[in-house]
Design brief:
246 residues; alpha/beta; 2 domains; 38% helix; elongated; binds 2'-O-acetyl adenosine-5-diphosphoribose
Length: 246
């Protein structure tokens, strides 16, 4: 389904030189992955974050946490990038000043071909040890999961940011700098509730960038955004890419 973009937005898309796209779980919904905060199907409607996505939860019950992420990794491995992910990769290939910041841990942007990308919350397909953050490429199967780090013997965990943990410093700094210096900021499929990531569109807006929100639902950003497209990412982004690449 094609959509008509407002004329003023078309002008701004065509002249923009430094563009930041910021994505959340909504962009991967059309690939078949659950978001976090959807009232019925969101992961946090079915599970409590404090039982599964905190260092305390891992210390309390490492097996349950490991197995929950194994289950999610299984889903991620089965799904494919969708037209929203592909549209962002096309924009990057055509516009040198394009930078992508994602909160998603599913790796679908990289699979769609995005390269100028930071993953603020890590990547579920990468595994590290809990104590020393050694990267684990492989491990021996064990009777009582999680498996152990081959370097230090510590328990393995997914390389994602849990509640109460700091974001990767370098990735956050690059994202904040890009937001402060861009002239167009696209906020796509995120509830804009989880800080510090959620401050990025506000940093962009207060530094004079045109802020565009793509989300079927209202968020705390909706009032500040210059343009709000109440569309699915897989519909709005191909239209935006087509306009920018004309
Ligand atoms: P949320 O689940 O909080 O929000 C998803 C947003 O996507 C909602 O605002 C939906 O309205 C919107 N949405 C749903 N389908 C869409 C579609 N097809 N196209 C566009 N938008 C759509 O997910 P995030 O904002 O990504 O953190 O959540 C932020 C962080 O909270 C996550 O990175 C995760 C979570 O706890 C960590 O794991 C550290």
């Amino acid at each position: 389904m094609a959509i008509d973009l407002p004329f003023e937005l078309i002008d701004r898309l065509r002249v923009a030189k430094r563009i930041v796209a910021f994505t959340g779980a909504g962009i991967s919904a059309e690939s078949g992955l659950s978001t976090f905060r959807d009232k019925q199907t969101g992961l946090w409607a079915q599970y409590r974050p404090e039982d599964l996505a905190t260092p305390q939860a891992f210390r309390r019950n490492p097996r349950m946490v490991w197995e929950w992420y194994e289950w999610r990794r299984g889903f991620v491995a089965k799904v494919e990038p969708n037209p929203g992910h592909h549209a962002l990769a096309r924009i990057e290939a055509a516009r040198p000043g394009f930078f992508l910041v994602t909160q998603n841990v599913d790796g679908l942007h990289a699979r769609a071909g995005s390269r100028n990308l930071v993953e603020l919350h890590g990547n579920i397909r990468r595994t590290i040890c809990f104590e020393h953050r050694h990267l684990a490429e492989s491990w021996e199967p064990v009777e009582e999961p999680p498996p152990r780090c081959e370097r230090c013997g510590g328990l393995l965990r997914p390389d994602v940011v849990w509640f109460g943990e700091a974001l990767p410093e370098n990735a956050l700094r690059r994202a904040q700098e890009a937001a402060a210096h861009c002239d167009l900021f696209l906020s796509i499929g995120t509830s804009t509730l989880v800080y510090p990531a959620a401050e990025l569109p506000f940093i962009a807006g207060s530094n004079g960038a045109t802020v565009i929100e793509i989300n079927p639902d209202f968020t705390p950003l909706s009032k500040l955004a210059d343009f709000v497209l109440r569309e699915k990412a897989g519909v709005a982004l191909p239209a935006i890419a087509a306009t920018m690449l004309e």
